[in-house]
Amino acid sequence: MWIESTIALRFLKEGRAQTLLILVGIAVGVSVIVFISALITGLQDNIVDRTLGTQAHIRVEAPEERNLQPPPVAGETRLVLEDPRPQRLRSIDNWPAVRDLLDTQPGIVAVSPIVTGPAIARRGDALFSVALLGIEPARYIRIIPIDESLTAGQLRVGAGETVIGSQLAHDLGVRIGDKLRLGGGDAPETVLNVAGIFELGVRELDSRYVYVDLKQAQSLLDLPGGATQIDLKVDDIFTADRVAARVRALTGLDAESWLESNAQLVNALRSQSLSTGMISLFVGLSVAFGIASVLSISVVQRTREIGILRAMGTRQRQMLLVFLVQGAVLGLVGSAIGAGAGFGLVWVFNVFGPRLFYIPMSATLIPLAMALATGTGVASALVPARRAARLDPVVAIRYV
Amino acid sequence: MSEPVLRLEDLRKSYNVGEPTETEVLHGISFELARADFAALVGPSGSGKSTLLNLLGLLDTPTAGELYLLGRATRELDDEARTQLRAESIGFVFQFHHLIPAFTARENVLMPLMVRRGRPDADAIRRADALLDAVGLAEFRDRPPKALSGGQQQRVAIARALIHEPALLLADEPTGNLDTQSAANVFELFRRFNRDFGCAVLIVTHDPRLSATCDRTLTLVDGQLEEDRRR
After folding, report:
1. Which of A45, A40, A15, A93 minimizes the C-alpha distance to A295?
2. Residue A229: what pLDDT?
3. Is the pTM of this model over 0.80?
4. Minimal Cα distance from A314: which residue of B?
5. Could you tell me the residue ranges of all domains in chain B?
């Protein structure tokens, strides 16, 4: 392999201008692929982070209530006309056992039981419909780090205390230490002290979420000892579907992953990934054709040298290798330069860009891009290399 | 008597075999070449000299007949085996020197060894330097071909043809591109190597003055060996 590599490198060095041009071409292609891949990954991470910053990866609830039917008798044809049942607010049966079971499941990193239902917040004459959430703060912040979104006060939801959204605070005209009245369904109203105000950046949530502790919510929603849902966080967000299916099978409860509840977003992300893939594919193809055409020209230019090398005892396989090595070297060096340039573009975007989001640089992206470009180099060199290997030395030596 | 380097038995070569335009350009050539031979192959243009040279150098295969190189029949050998035999036993010098521009004079001389055995050892490098010294180019060994004159390049090509101590040296118009003095020098080198290394030399030439200095002249006319004259 030494002589093949030596001849390949000398050929590349000798055709300096040609080599330099194709290296620039490969570098531009690879930098575009690296930058676009990093940009789209960063953008998607950002969107997913923002989406999942305000919702659980999986929501577990009691199954819907359905009208029960007696089992069909063999040979019987039954026509059913029924009214669907209203879904009343109800607790998951034996939720502490479910919580403890989910705590031990692989892939699930946080479990938080919640009591949630509709309520009315009132202060003076102002009246707002809100979503009451009864939580165990220590568990809940591992799912949604509400403590990081506090704009005033503290995350205290103990007896007689509440944390509300900034928009609701504005609408009710309350500040930390002020009181508001909260009423659930049939239970009597209670007066709560505003201990904290948060801002998640989603208007709907900031104007509706009212956090209290689990017990207060159970009492306000008339669900003593109950929990209406269990929120889960998984270690790999894109496996949430599979984990949800496992939870369903394990508990018999309804479990919906964020991938199902945000189907449109997931669809958009997939389309985005697909377009990035297409752009990378076409840029990669142009790079491949560039390498192939430069090496094809090189085979023509070096026909006589190939002939003389063959006459001196160079095997066909060795001639093939000479050109495959050239393809690999072009791919490797070009992609190293391109990856560096792509990395530079990402740095420029992060430091001087619009700063809408940060592009993280994946440790695997550069080696992956380089390996791919080197492979592309070898594959593109295959056709010219075969042509070089198959040149008839008699014809090649006399080639002018 | 020792085994001849080359033995041709009714060697024939046709082009476009099996087609209406099939043409036979060599019509049954037979001769032997011994180690001590210093021979010229002459003949008018189109007589089949280059075709014969390609066959003798195992660069091409005959249509019929047999070619024995060092006693080994070659017609049925595949490309790999022919390449191997060529690399071990034959040295080439072409009209146009055909040095590889990307390598220095010394590397060009070493090339036949490098393509077979990889990185050259100290002994191979010493041999290349001795050959370059023998062709009067010791001080030019690290120069690329483009920094050498035509005659110097041809001398490098001769050193290259001899690095692996071939049994047969084939030269195709080796002086065709050189001035009279350089041509005489090159011829003198061939003569010396034939004597010192004991390798058979067959030179294709148009130049009657050069062929006249050879020990043996093979004359090819219309694809047939018309005369095999020894002096």
Report:
1. A15
2. 93
3. no
4. B115
5. 6-230
